[in-house]
Amino acid sequence: MKKVLITVVVVLVVLAAAVYLVFFRPQVPLELRYPPTSRPTDCFAGAEGTGESAEATAMTQIEGEPVDLPFDLSGTWALREVSSTLSRVPIIGDLETTTTSILQVEIRQNQNRLSMVTQTCSLEAVNDSDTSRLLFPPAFMAAMVASERQAIVEPTESGYRFRQVRHSRLLGANLDDPVNDPLPTDKRDPRVTDNDGDGHPGVTVRIEGLVDGDVYLVQRNWNELCGDVTSPDRVEGYLWWGSRQSILDASNFLLKRSAESIPNPDWERNRFLMCRVQPGLSCEEIVSDPAALFAACSQP
Question: What is the pTM of this model?
Fold first, then answer.
């Protein structure tokens, strides 16, 4: 009997220690553990890393007098955006998730002003651990309807600089101010919508791995693009981006808790490449072999 009691006590002590280490042990915030790298160019002047800080530095509108350019960027393009997220997940630890978005872009140019109608063709998230996977159901993709972005091309000493002003996307809610209003936290909030039409509040993403389930959330993302026009058929550079989400519910109670996460402050982990393609090339055609498509214009 005494041995049984000792065994029980040891097990309880081990469990208590594990719970403390996972949930209550003080940890260095992600922002301090992963400090920002220096900016590779003069893009995003004043930005501290790639987070939602330094809002005053956001490029929200195009200023200055229009100028003529010696080339025309009008036409159909394929855009690849690669962004990296650092997350702290209970039990698993710190993870890096790389999200690759491929978009079809129709550009209309007026002097050095660009209007860009974008449609997301594919979205893939891969992390550096095989313990979990983030999947985007077809209904989620369908909810990402086409949107318009504004950009400007400016002459520099070494060529031409491309800058897309800040573009925001809100999924899972209707807000009076989609850019600044706090996100709903209650699934019964009347502002919550079912954008993907699956009968659940907000939009649904799928988690598979150590824990499986669907997560129902409201999400707001934004990004700015800044890079170089290396030719009339190619633009490449860096992303400054941020994301906020509110978990409304989940099919598995273990997924109802949000993980701490930040955009990776390493600028080289957040890049874009935009390549001119055949006029009218569809999303389906663009994602049929994206590796070959982007490899063909990977060098200036």
Answer: 0.84
CB 35 within 8 A of CB 262: no
Q: pLDDT band for 94, please (50, 70, 90 cuts).
A: confident
Cα dihedral: 270, 100, 122, 217 (round 10): -80
Distance of CA 159 to the CA centre of its chain: 29
Tens-digit pLDDT profile for residues 172-207: 999 999 999 999 999 999 999 999 999 999 999 999
> How distant, in Å, are the alpha carbons of 4, 136, 147, 163 from that of 42?
67, 34, 27, 11
Within 8 A by CB and 6+ apart from 186, the residues are 192, 248
Amino acid at 80: R
Give the residue from 144, 168, 257 showing the smallest Cα distance to 207: 257
In three-state secondary structure terms, 32 is helix
Domains of the chain listed by start with CATH number:
33-296 (2.40.160.20)
Q: Which residue(s) pair with 162 in the sheet?
A: 153, 227
Which residues are within 8 A (CB) of 4 and not within 5 positions of it... i.e. 6 or more apart?
none
- The span from the CA of 208 to the CA of 143, in Å, is 21
Question: Does the pLDDT of residue 33 top 60, yes or no?
Answer: no
How far apart CA 127 and CA 170 sit, in angstroms, is 24
Greatest mean pLDDT among 13-22, 47-56, 185-194? 185-194
Nearest to 257 by CA among 137, 89, 126: 89
- The continuous run of DSSP H or E covering 153 comes out as strand 147-155
What are the residue ranges of helices labelled H in 72-227? 138-143
8 A C-beta contact, residue 205 and residue 135 = yes
